[in-house]
């Protein structure tokens, strides 16, 4: 019954997605990579939220909450502020240029080599870090929930391999053969299920604690685990409060404002108004997401008396323990949808980057749009296979899956953010500075975290978010100094291509102020 419900919901989402998208023309670059620039605010918000909410969030953050409490909710709450900064400042400029990829802005601002170097770094990050971790965390959740090893009488390792490949193959079909429109529509449908099903877990968890009454369970949880309900972390916690003002906000700005897998949804907006509306709805959703990705971890800590061999299994084990069997299949399908969302969204973005920024730029400049799309799909298959081979090899990170993901992502996210910020904020900094800043950021961060830190010892080394902020400032100053020594002969000017209507949403500034006040209020309440 559980497996039947899983197949029914998963198949229903696939069928609806096919019916809504199969007649759309996606053989052109704009049609395939940007959904024909037709996405509305609601679709953008749904796709953004579910692209973000995969198992590295659901499993990883709940595992971190099991250890540290709700202070890890900062990853979700502060995201709302970064999203609104993107809506107010970055998105109008992106749509004014009419770009399909973030590296295309870098080509316009600096040169083609900077664009291609950035795309290559993005592709390496997706193929070797992000996609494998999404597959690994998803397989960990589903194999635990479905007891794959026990059912098929196989080892846990083999069960992990089988689940990784099942997720990867289905996700590849959505991303490679459906294009962005199919990804966005399936994301929106799964978002409804995720928020519905996701809220069931804390409700049933609190009912289990409160002997049938969720309010009694919440009171008992708050009283018994009071130390877990502090949003402000101490200097020796996994997320010290000071990091919110250093690397934390930089990571958020990269993720929501410059990460191709995320911002591509807003770039596909039918106009600026719909794009800003979609970002506001996504910011609003992020404020409520901790009920799904943080609170269950605290509930699991109480329910299991703080004893689990692997805290990253806290969420799937809580689901198995408290969710009635009638809902189990549906919820597994929802989790599967969340996994697919992050996987196929990143894969679709990788196909976009390779097709437009590598293949058409260097390999075949005269390629037709249909040829670019076809070659992009072939590359997507290769990248998906690479991720499926790498994913099962990921060893369990001692600091937790989510923290591990954020730390290794620093190899490329802050360097890319640095050159984009400098590109927007200055007019005379040359392409040479961008290349030096990009390579300096990648090399210095990698040496810091994977060479110097192990030698010194993690307990004596600055938090990785502080390291990110230090290197961001250093490389920004480095680029500005180079710009002073070898400035551009003519100042850069952002050109309006008229591809997209850039009339803003009239209440975007009040909406941004509202989000900021809500975030500040949350920190005051749970300080």
Short description:
This protein has helices spanning 2-21, 29-34, 41-52, 55-68, 74-97, 102-109, 112-145, 148-152, 156-209, 214-224, 247-257, 260-267, 272-288, 290-293, 295-303, 314-322, 325-363, 369-390, 401-409, 413-425, 431-456, 464-485, 508-525.
Q: Could you characterize what this model shows?
A:
The chain has 527 residues and is mostly helical. It has 2 domains: 2-395, Sodium/glucose cotransporter; 410-491, no CATH class. The chain is 75% helix and 0% strand. The chain starts with a helix and ends with a helix. The relative contact order is 0.19. The model has no long low-confidence stretch (mean pLDDT 84).
């Amino acid at each position: 019954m559980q497996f039947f419900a899983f197949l029914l919901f998963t198949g229903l989402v696939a069928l609806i997605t096919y019916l809504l998208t199969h007649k759309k023309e996606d053989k052109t670059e704009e049609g395939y990579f940007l959904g024909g620039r037709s996405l509305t605010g609601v679709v953008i918000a749904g796709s953004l939220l579910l692209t973000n909410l995969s198992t590295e969030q659901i499993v990883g953050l709940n595992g971190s909450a099991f250890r540290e409490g709700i202070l890890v909710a900062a990853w979700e709450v502060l995201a709302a502020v970064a999203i609104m900064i993107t809506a107010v400042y970055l998105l109008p400029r992106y749509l004014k240029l009419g770009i399909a990829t973030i590296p295309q802005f870098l080509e316009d601002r600096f040169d083609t080599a900077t664009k291609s170097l950035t795309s290559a770094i993005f592709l390496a990050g997706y193929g070797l870090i992000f996609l494998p971790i999404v597959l690994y965390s998803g397989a960990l959740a589903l194999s635990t929930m479905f007891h794959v090893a026990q059912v098929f009488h196989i080892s846990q390792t083999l069960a992990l391999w089988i689940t990784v490949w099942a997720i990867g193959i289905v996700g590849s079909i959505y991303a490679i053969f459906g294009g962005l429109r199919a990804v966005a529509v399936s994301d929106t449908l799964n978002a409804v299920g995720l928020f519905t099903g996701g809220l069931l877990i804390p409700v049933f968890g609190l009912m289990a604690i409160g002997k049938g009454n969720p309010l009694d369970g919440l009171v008992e949880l708050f009283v018994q685990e009071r130390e877990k309900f502090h949003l402000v972390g101490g200097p020796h916690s996994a997320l010290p409060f000071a990091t919110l003002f250093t690397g934390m906000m930089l990571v958020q700005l990269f993720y929501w404002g410059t990460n191709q897998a995320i911002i591509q949804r807003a770039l596909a907006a039918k106009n600026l108004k719909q794009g800003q509306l979609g970002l506001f709805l996504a910011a609003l959703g992020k404020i409520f997401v901790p009920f799904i990705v943080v609170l269950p971890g605290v509930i699991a800590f109480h329910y299991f008396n703080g004893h689990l061999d692997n805290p990253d299994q806290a969420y799937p084990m809580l689901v198995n323990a408290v969710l009635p069997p009638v809902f189990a299949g549906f919820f597994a399908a929802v989790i599967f949808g969340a996994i697919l969302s992050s996987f196929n969204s990143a894969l679709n973005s990788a196909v976009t980057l390779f097709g437009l920024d590598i293949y058409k730029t260097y390999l075949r400049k005269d390629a037709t749009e249909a040829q670019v799309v076809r070659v992009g799909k072939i590359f997507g298959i290769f990248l998906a296979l690479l991720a499926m081979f790498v994913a099962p090899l990921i060893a369990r990170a001692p600091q937790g899956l989510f923290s591990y993901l954020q730390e290794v992502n620093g190899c490329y996210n802050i360097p890319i953010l640095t050159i984009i910020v400098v590109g927007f904020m200055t007019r005379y900094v040359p392409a040479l500075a961008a290349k030096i800043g990009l390579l300096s950021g990648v090399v210095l961060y990698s040496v810091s975290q994977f060479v110097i830190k192990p030698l010194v010892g993690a307990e004596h080394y600055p938090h990785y978010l502080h390291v990110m902020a230090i290197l961001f400032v250093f490389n920004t100053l480095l680029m500005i100094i180079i710009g002073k020594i070898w400035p551009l002969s003519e100042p850069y000017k952002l050109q309006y291509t008229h591809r997209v209507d850039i009339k803003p949403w009239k209440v975007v500034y009040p909406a941004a102020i509202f989000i900021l006040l809500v975030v500040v209020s949350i920190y005051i309440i749970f300080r």
